[in-house]
Structure formats: C-alpha cells, structure tokens
Amino acid sequence: MALNENIIISTLRYLKSKIEGLHREGTIRYSTYVNLDRCCDELLSTLYLTKHSMEGEPSKIARLKKLIDKMFELKTIVECISSGVVDRSYDGYLRELLTRLRDVEELDLWTIKYGRNFSPFCYPSYESGELSFILVTPEKPNFLSSDLVGLLAHEVAHIHDIVDNYKNQVNKIKIGEALADILGHILVEFAFVHSLGYYIEKVVGLNNANQTKTCHPSWVARIWVLRALTGEIWQEQKIIKRNEDYLQSLLTRVPELDNLEEHLVKDCVREYRNNARNFVRFKFNEAILAKLEDLSDPEVENLGEVEKIIREAVLKNVQAV
Question: What count of Cα atoms within 13 Å lies in the side-chain half-sphere of residue 284?
C-alpha cells in the first residue's frame, strides 16, 4: 500500500498544480487536456486495483473511496476546462467576506459550469498572496440557493490560518471542518449586518458620511436570501453528521479547543455583535420602514433587481433581526 499511496499523492499534487495553473490562463491546450485526462484515468485505475486488493481492511478502503471521489472531481474539472464552460463573473461578491479573514491582493473565483445536475463543490487555493477558488456548479447554477452559498461560506472560512492548519493533520480534519462551519456561519451573519445599513440607505435615498465600506450587490442579495436559510444550511444532515463529535465541544470550549481557536470564535462573535448594534436604528425606525413599504410601483421598478430583493427581504425579515 505504501508505494501505491505515494504514487496517488504525487499524482494528485501534480494534477492540482496543473489545474490551478490553468485557471489563470482560462483555457487549455489539447495536448495538456489529453495528458491530464490520461493521468486521471491511470490514477483511477490504480485506485480501483488497490481497492480490490484490500478486502477486509475497511479503514483503508474508506480512504481509497475518498481518493476515487476526488479523482472524479478533478477529471470533471479537466473536462469542463477543455469544453470552455468556464465563467469568471462571480468573484466580486466574495471579496468583502474574504477581507474579514486575511489581506487578499488578488482574488479569482473561477466558476466551471458542468452540464448535469449535481451538488456543487469547491477548491480554495491561496499561494503567494493570490487567492483562487475553483467552483464547479451545474450548468445553470442558482447562486441564491442554500447549498451553493453555504458551500462558499464554508470554503472561504478554510483560508483562515487557524482552520487551514488542520488540513494536513489527518486526525484533526473533522475539527477543522467543524471550525469552518462555525466561522462560515459567523461570517454570513457579519456580512448580513454589515451590508444592511448601506443598502437600506441606498433604497430609501439617505446619505451617511460615515458609511465608507460597500458590498458587491450580488453578494448582498445572496446574504439577504441566506439570512432566512442559515438555519437550514447548517442543519443539513451531512454537516450534522460531520460535526456531531466536534461541533458541540468547540462551541462549549472543552480542553480539546485550544486558546487560539477559542480566540478565533470569540473574536468573530464579538465583531458580529458590535456590527449588529449598528442597524438597531433601522429595526425600530418606523419612518424608514414605512418609506420602504410605501414606494410607488415606478419607484420599485427603478430600484433594480438587487434592491428589489433587499427591499422585500427588509419588509419581511427586519423585525426579526
């Protein structure tokens, strides 16, 4: 198994490196496609042969199944690049969220749309100050859906140093995943409260000289929708199963949670609560709510799609914030 495992790891690293390079080019040469596709097929063959030789070793078989799934994902990405079904138009709405975790010089959300129905998946990469996400979605992705926005919030959380430190520690991977869920949840809350004031002011025509930061409109629209779905996202059976042994211990700060992780969670919660205070005035300001509600039909039509979503969400949910 040792030799095969070394081959598997080496080839996966090669494929990962090649694919991360290809996203910067936005295209793929035919010879490169053939080479990558061949590597994927050869590695899959090796994985299957190894799996068949390991009857009676369930833990090793489980590891191989994960590697096989990863290979199919990489193979899908290669096929999508070769078909030209890539889209780079969705990176703006991540930028505000990412700056809460780390200084990012460059950001590239490289979206690949694949022509079949499946759950989206994502690969974050951060090297030399350049951050990229390879996001694979169905051909017609719904960027307002709970599974896609929840996935992005979780994957974004993985770039934080504390969470990132767990990725190569096999015995602590589940702890890292649970931390990413917690941090992703808190980041969603932060982005929601941070965006609320600016866009309410925009819709009702108010000016605030102290409001210096803005959010990408598509990000804010998604946050509004996600606000109502947050509980649903983090109650999905897959996430519950993954976190059942770890999530509660992290939240209650048992000895397994060291000081750095505890600080991460407490700091994020504190920042969220501080920002939440900033929009209490909107929650109880009847004049603002009335103006949002009493806009004429032409005024509503002139708001634009993003502002319409926000207005509807404010009127529906702001009293519950």
Answer: 4
Nearest by Cα to 279 from 307, 223, 320: 320
Spacing of C-alpha 210 from chain mean position: 30
In 3D space, the residue among 175, 195, 185, 182 whose CA is nearest the CA of residue 150 turns out to be 185
List alpha helices for 53-131, DSSP H: 58-83, 92-98
Q: Under a CB-based contact definition with an 8 Å cutoff, are residues 130 and 105 in contact?
A: yes
**Sign of CA pseudo-dihedral 131, 135, 139, 143:** negative
HSE, CB side, 13 Å, CA atoms: give it for residue 50.
Answer: 23
Residue 230 has φ and ψ, to the nearest 5°, of -55, -45
135 three-class SS: strand
Domain-by-domain residue ranges, the chain? 2-83, 170-320
- The pLDDT score that the predictor gives to residue 216 is 41
Q: Which pTM was predicted?
A: 0.47
Vertex 226, ends 297 and 240: CA angle to 5°? 155
Alpha carbons 58 and 46: distance in angstroms, whole number = 18
pLDDT along the chain (321 residues), means of 10: 58 69 62 70 73 70 69 65 55 55 58 61 61 67 60 75 71 73 66 52 49 42 43 53 51 46 55 49 55 68 58 56 38
The DSSP element (H or E) to which 37 belongs, if any, is helix 30-52
Q: Which DSSP helix (H) or strand (E) runs through 31?
A: helix 30-52
Taking residue 225's Cβ as centre, other Cβ atoms within 10 Å add up to 17
For residue 30, the model assigns a pLDDT of: 63
* Cβ partners under 8 Å of residue 145, min gap 6: none
